[in-house]
Amino acid sequence: MSESEISQLVSLLPKRIAQLGELAYNLWWTWHAEAPKLFQRINPVLWETVYHNPVKLLRQVPRHYLTAAYQDFRFLETYDHVMDDYARYMTPAFNGSVPWFTRTYGTWDNPVAYFSFEFGLHESLPMYAGGLGVLAADHLKSSSDLGLPMIGIGFLYLQGYFRQRITEDGWQEADYDQLDFSQLPITHVLGEDGSPLMIPIELQSRTIWVQVWKAQVGRVPLYLMDTDITRNTPQDRQLTYRLYSPDPDTRIAQEIVLGIGGVRALRALKINPKVWHMNEGHPAFGTLERARELVKDHGMTFAEAQQAVKRTTVFTTHTPVPAGNDQFQVWQVERLLTGYWNELGISRDEFMALAEHDGNYGMTVLALRMAEKANAVSELHGQVARKMWSWMYPGREVPISHITNGVHSRSWVSSRIRRLFDTYLGIGWASRIDDPITWAPIHEMPDDQLWQAHKHNKRRLAEFMRDRARAKWITHRQHPVQTIASGVLIDPNVLTLGFARRFATYKRAALLLRDTERLLRIINNPGRPVQIVFAGKAHPNDEPGKLLIQQLYRMIKNADSAGRLVFIDDYDLNVGRYLVRGVDVWLNTPRRPHEASGTSGMKAVLNGAINFSVLDGWWCEGYNGRNGWAIGSDTVTTDYEMQDRADAESLYQTLENEIVPLYYDVDYDNIPHKWVDKMKESISTIVPRFNTRRMLRQYISEAYVPLANGIVESVE
Ligand SMILES: *Cc1c(COP(=O)(O)O)cnc(C)c1O
Known about the structure:
alpha/beta; binds pyridoxal-5'-phosphate
């Protein structure tokens, strides 16, 4: 497989630093401590303009900047060091540093295939909407770190999700950019004849063609499918334009392309996965495609094929919210997949019965019927999911376990905090992150060092907000009050809360606004003020979600809030990184038990923020009474009004009586030592558990290895 995009870029660069061209095409650089600074140093202004996309940077930067870089000995020193690390990482066999997976389980000749609708790897590759995609990306990054042979498969969206703009009246508007694929860190996958690989998905109703691209995630290749090719009808070309199309016809065709097309793409690439992992139900049609192969090529009955597929399939369910579990009208499935059941050797009714739920065709139902291992993403979510799907298993235990989500620490930790960890926990702490002993020395870290590192990150967040506000102000297209709403009055010395997430109603972003008088008293308390930074998108078709943003934005614009409430628009991975690093407290107010796990709080804790959340998702198992604060109790009621009232009261009380006094209890050295103690308690009890190294090792020992070795008990 030739990768002409890479060699072409390498050939454009001065020889001494030509390997930057290769580095630009491997997302490994995004989680290395110094590699991002290397690109940034070439031209810091352009680096921001190209939104941290090194392929764009290197293609666009005037030659003399590259010349200056290779004549600067400090640049070369960093360059050599990064390239050394890169070579060691990519070819561990040659330098004796065998990765953990290989040491433990030996060499696997075939990989685990990980299917996902979205992957949130980096802001320069906008193929994600939110948490599901970020988790999928962190899953690939950690697999790469551990040396687990894995390949990812998903979509290359021409327009990504959408970019958010907020009008003066607080209304969310969606902008769609057309991406230029030649400027992204991806390469064309070529067929044997050297032209781009094209894969037909032949359905009786029509044939959809896909071409395949590759993004490299450390050692893990991620294959991205794209239907925007001239061979397709205009309608099919649009299938990969946008993520989460609200149009059910588009959506079902997308899921057929992801599932069935994904399997065919891997076959064309001669990849023969040992284990197949479905991230959410979207790729579940792929299990039928694998059954079809077995029926057609191996003469199995459907029942035999189903068992064979199941034995190598893992399914992760991610949401207890019904709307998050995709389902289609039976006639829609029939229209697109008509006749497919003949190839499986079953009748139409048997085919539909595989996924039928309340008269609809449910992707989660199909996935559960076709996977031997199914898991939820937190302990509480496991309980909820088992209850939710118990109707499928009358009189039997529901075979859904849980593997709690985590975050990829190297992608989320700030440089300042990383350096402190290097010093006090020892270099390589990230490879021992899931061992509690690694974290014991944190209590020896001097308070002022942790506090100064944290204060530095708070100042960075304030600068970031000011720069963005200024960039919008100068366009003459913004009302002055929007400049204030974007955070220019923020003071890095003031207690700062962060709230960033999807504006879905169950996340209850407006809980804080239930008693506005009380909220204003809290934020404007003389001598002890409080700031709150909000960010997040509503799905473009979610009117209640957009109304929530508007309600919040009106409060933010109100002069009574004194510029201490802020909304950062267009929440993405870049905004997310600044936020989780630069706030003191991470706030989360979902309606229990609707949040399956959540991960942003874990990113914040890694950087020293303290979690303040409803006991839902991961926090229910992470909270120990000392490492943060809980909102409300751990009960569930169906009386939403009562629950909201009780939770809001609890939120205000804890803020007034515990959080604010603790933050402002500073000693003569100007450091709130009791607060810093809590930061340490939070880091040392939460980080070792809520990371993707622990998570991946659990997937490996509980799912991938047992399935690969065929030592699972059948649940049917
Ligand atoms: C981590 C992250 C999420 C997921 O966070 P939740 O805790 O599930 O809300 C969503 N979007 C971005 C950009 C993130 O970085």
